[in-house]
Structure formats: C-alpha cells, structure tokens
Amino acid sequence: MVHIVKTNQLTRTYGGKEAVSNVSMSVKQGEIYGMLGPNGAGKTTVMKMITNLVKPTAGEIELFGERITDSSYRHLGRMGMIIETPIFYDKMTAHENLELHCDYMGYHNKNSIKEALELVNLNAIDKKPVKEFSLGMKQRLGIARAITTKPELLILDEPTNGLDPVGIKEMRELFSVLSKQFGMTILVSSHILGEIELIADTIAVMNGGKLLQEVPMEHITRQNTEYIEITTRE
Ligand code: ATP
C-alpha cells in the first residue's frame, strides 16, 4: 500500500504549549482521510505542517514517499489545498481567478479550468465577479482552484464550515467524484462526526493536539462511534 502522507511523532509547540503532540498518521493513496476533532484539537496545525506553512518543532513528514527536510520542498505542485478561508481577487471573475492561479503554478491545460468549474457547479456563472458570490459559492470556487491543476493530494481544512445542508451534501458528492473518478487522495478535517463518517475511508480522531485513534471506516463499530462522539464533543 502506497502512503501519500506519513508523519512520525509530529510536534509543534507555541510558546512552550504543544499545539500538536507526537502525531503519527498515514494517508493511503486514493483514500479520503478524515481528521475529526473539536476546535483547538490541532487539525489545522497538522495540515499547515504538511503543506509547509508551519515548521514542525519535532518529528518527520513523508510526502509521496519522500522524507521532507527543511531545505527540500518539491511537492507543493502535486497538492491542492484550502487551509484558511480562500481569498480571491473580488473584482475579477471566477474564471480569471482560476487563470491567475494556473499561471502562478505554471500549469497550462486549457480545459482544466472549465472542468474544475463544472465539477463545482459554477460554470454557468464563471464570468461573474467574485464579489457577487455567496460564502458557499466562494467555498466551491476555492475547491475549483485547488483542483484545477489536477493535484494528487487535496488538503481541505473544514470545507463545510458555514455551508447549509444542501451545500454540505453537494460537497460530499464532490469528494466522492474527486476520489472515485479522478483518483485524488483527500485529507479533510471537520468537527462533526456525522459529516466525516459519511465520506471518509479512514477517520483520525484528534483532541488536545494528540491523535487518539486512526480507524479504517470498516472497523467503526457502535462502541467506538460513542467513544469518538464523546472525545470530540466541543
Ligand atoms: P480549529 O477548528 O479551531 O481551527 P484545530 O483543531 O484546527 O481547531 P489548531 O488551529 O491547529 O486546531 O490549534 C491547536 C492549538 O494550537 C490551539 O490551542 C491553538 O490556540 C494553538 N495555536 C494554533 N496556531 C497558533 C499560533 N500561531 N500561535 C499560538 N497558538 C497557536
């Protein structure tokens, strides 16, 4: 089994306090890996370390089978990510924002922008300026931007935050398409078990900076669902 992300004893401290403590996790190729935990559990910090936005205080990260060191970070082009609320050029259209991203990433495939906008159901309004978009539309545009370069690994931090039930359902369907049809590996976080268990192949339960459990979905029983519910309660 190929691992796309593997961390070993990953730790990050801020002012002496451990935001992430000794997290060892592995994300397998092609799977949807759901990180579940309440606010402050350390999910974002783990994602920031994997995407090189924050340096680990200790521990190791392997990406695409290669150990990441301080000086080497060659894999960003193989990843798509939304770690914080996506920011766009508001006066530009959805299509122009994606074009700009592709130029920045040095990715030149004429159809990919159109395809990405179709996947998130924004193709009909791709000529509208982003300032006219709702929060849900911006979330979807963020995902379109993240997938427009056809990344092998997609990292999404709480992508359903602020979405209504219809938006959440659409997001879930999109993950399934990206995983099944495009073979993308997806690392996604949420604080809602009911959301994660509907999409994930593996669930990682985090609290207080620690990874408490990493369970394949097929091993989830009623008993550990109750345990997960209790440990991830806000
Ligand atoms: P949330 O859903 O609220 O983002 P999370 O599970 O993603 O929660 P993190 O954002 O990773 O959790 O935060 C983990 C802990 O680290 C929290 O206690 C947070 O206050 C702390 N922390 C995160 N970033 C910083 C920072 N830049 N400086 C100081 N403390 C930080």
Could you name the key traits of this structure?
ATP-binding; binds adenosine-5'-triphosphate; 234 residues; 5-stranded antiparallel sheet; nucleotide-binding; 6-stranded mixed sheet; ABC transporter ATP-binding protein; 7 helices; globular; alpha/beta
Would you mind describing this structure in some detail?
- The protein has 234 residues and is of the alpha/beta class.
- 32% of the residues lie in helices and 26% in strands.
- It is built from seven helices and eleven strands.
- The protein has helices at 43-50, 94-105, 110-119, 135-147, 165-180, 193-199, 222-231; strands at residues 3-14, 17-23, 26-28, 32-36, 58-63, 66-67, 79-82, 153-156, 185-190, 202-207, 210-216.
- The strands form two sheets. Strands 7-8-9-4-10-11 form a six-stranded mixed sheet, with helices on both faces. Strands 1, 2, 3, 5 and 6 form a five-stranded antiparallel sheet that branches.
- The longest helix has 16 residues, at 165-180.
- It starts with a strand and ends with a helix.
- Bound molecules: adenosine-5'-triphosphate.
- The site of adenosine-5'-triphosphate has 10 residues, from helix 1.
- Residues 14, 19, 37, 39-45 line the site of adenosine-5'-triphosphate.
Short structural summary:
With 234 residues, the chain is of the alpha/beta class. The chain contains seven helices and eleven strands.
What's the arrangement of secondary structure elements?
Layout: E1 3-14, E2 17-23, E3 26-28, E4 32-36, H1 43-50, E5 58-63, E6 66-67, E7 79-82, H2 94-105, H3 110-119, H4 135-147, E8 153-156, H5 165-180, E9 185-190, H6 193-199, E10 202-207, E11 210-216, H7 222-231
This protein binds adenosine-5'-triphosphate.
